[in-house]
Amino acid sequence: MIAKDEAVNLPRCLDSVRGVVDEMIVIDTGSTDATVEIAQKYGARVESAVWTGDFSAARNAALAHATGDWILVLDADEALASASRGRLRKVLSKTEADGLQIRIRNLSAPGELVAHVDMPLTRVFRNVPEHRFEGVIHEQIGPSIERRGGRIAPSDLLIIHYGYAQSTVQGSLSRADRNLAALKRAIADRPLDAYLQYQAGCTYRALQDDVQAKAALEAALRLDVEHRLSIHVRSTIYAKLAQIELARHEDREAVRLAKASLELVPEGAVALQILALGSLSTGDPQLAHDAFVAVRRQPNLNPQHVADVEKMIDVLRTELARGRDRGT
To answer: Going from the N-terminus, what domains does the chain have, and what CATH number goes with each?
Structure first.
């Protein structure tokens, strides 16, 4: 891992892998708190690196110190799920793949529709010199694995990510502002990179700049001519564009985009909610009812939204029944 001023999060992260991994390697990029001391207390090998704004460079510096056959990458605000602790070695002993996708469970900020969102990312891979991260931000290991003919396989392993439940990183820095500055530099170097445009769109959306968010998200779709972006990423792009159109009261366009998102990931809760709200405004109570029912069935629905969703289902059920009685 790489870390800076992560004294609050680090114990939870290292506790989750203590006794599971053979070695812990922490690259510290300039902490002023107790990050280094905590890591050393857990028996981690701590090395220092000057922060240059390049996440891949820092991660690759950590990889260079690894001696095991396999590498597990974590961030300080993450933890290997309890059920995965006992399964990690068993899974690795049986796979013939060169990298494994792990479900990253991103815990949502308070008030969000869903309590968490899962996203598969390649976080475990064989330790060979050619496997290195790419990209100054939102760095990826997958391209280097695939370039040497390696295979990336799915797994049932799970990592819990706590970071999105808080708006700041490294104590007080705004996550979105930090990311946007790095993304602008990266896009200046690689303007045709669809993944960078996607991440920029998500960041602008977090900063409530929907004009820039829409432009970046549409650019991501336009540039992804070979559909190299994952299904989950493309589904997220459509869902975020649908959110923007709904906020602009362009309800028919919001419904169209929500349907496009659901064609890729049918269980997407945010897209289902937009479909429900947009269908209400465009005069399709049956579609709105069915979409709200699908939202209610989401296993990760935030408990604080259950009553509101159930109320909408009851109201629409009554309206539909009255319509049938009138023969309309």
So the answer is: 2-168 (3.90.550.10), 174-326 (1.25.40.10)
